[in-house]
Amino acid sequence: MTSRVLVTGASRGFGAALSEAFAERGATVFAGVQGASPGLDPIARRYPSLVIPVELDVASTGSVAEAARRVSERCDALDLVINNAAIRSATVENPIETIDFEEAARTFEVNTIGPLRVVQMFLPLLRKGTSPMLVNVSSEAGSIGQCGRDREFDYCMSKAALNMMSMLLTNYLKDSVRVLAVHPGWMRTDMGGPHAESDPGEAARATLSLIEKEQKNRRGAPFLDRTGRPLVW
Question: What does the pLDDT read at residue 193?
Answer without folding.
Answer: 65
